[in-house]
Specification:
Layout lengths: L1 E5 L7 H13 L4 E6 L4 H5 L10 H5 L7 H4 L1 E5 L2 E4 L5 H11 L2 H9 L8 E6 L5 H9 L2 E7 L3 H18 L6 E9 L5 H11 L15 H7 L4 H4 L4 H23 L9
Parallel strand pairs: 1-5, 1-6, 2-4, 2-5, 6-7
Antiparallel strand pairs: 3-4
Helix pairs in contact: 1-12, 6-7, 8-9
The structure holds adenosine-5'-triphosphate (ATP) and magnesium ion.
Magnesium ion binds next to helix 1.
Amino acid sequence: MRLAVCSSKGGVGKTATAANLAAVLAGLGPTLVIDADPQESLGRSFGVTANAADSLAAVLDPDSETTAAEAIRAEVAPGLSLLPAHPSLDAIGNVLAQQGGLITSLRRALRPIAADYAHVVIDTHGDLGNLTVAAIATADAVLAVYTSDPGSALGVVRTAAFLNTHRTFENSDAVFLGAACANWDATGAAARDVAAALASTNLPTFEARIPTSRRVPSATLAKRPVVLAYPNSAVAQAYRELTDEVLTRYAAGTTTGTGTATGAG
Ligand SMILES: Nc1ncnc2c1ncn2[C@@H]1O[C@H](COP(=O)(O)OP(=O)(O)OP(=O)(O)O)[C@@H](O)[C@H]1O
Ligand SMILES: [Mg+2]
């Protein structure tokens, strides 16, 4: 599976979700997690910071010879490799958009190493911009993330529409697996509003919801995803359940080839 974690809204939990799903998937087979966001938060959640020259920015830079294999950090967690970002990635995305080659840039860069990984997870920037286009063109599945914040339901709808547009132009054949709540405040009325708003769209949602937990930011400080830092916590269990659902949907969605995964609800 090549999974892009997306939302048109920032701060909804994309990076925490990508890091934790990747750490769980890595227990099932060799996994690569890619930071396609110039904010470079994903790397920091594993204690990795990169220079421009040994990051995804160099890998995608048309003027650099750096290969993906050279920029990947192996075993940042058991079974997990990381391709880190750097703030200069933003400018590289703009260059690729102007010069051509943006859409296929990441897919081409990963081609030599694709067979090395059972799963690839891509964390994206919350703007559906250039680098997210490159990410969904690499992915065969997209997961949208929302929170208990009412505005985040719109972020899911925009992400699904964005993917549909790119499918129309054949920039991507990725399946929209569904929307996952990455920060669920079960006691808040807002959370129920968001869930109801999403239910009315007919977009698939995941049953597993990641509860709001102070352990998620604590784990970032500890430079390990919460599934590794606090494996016995309820929030870690929720990430494992979400991963199971993602894999089940992926198997169903890619065999039916519908574009929106089956099992909506
Ligand atoms: N389940 C959760 N419980 C509590 N805090 C959470 C949870 N999930 C994420 N957070 C916190 O919310 C903040 C935003 O999360 P995160 O960085 O993963 O979002 P993002 O969508 O990647 O943001 P950006 O758009 O800036 O990349 C972080 O401080 C993170 O620790
Ligand atoms: Mg992020």
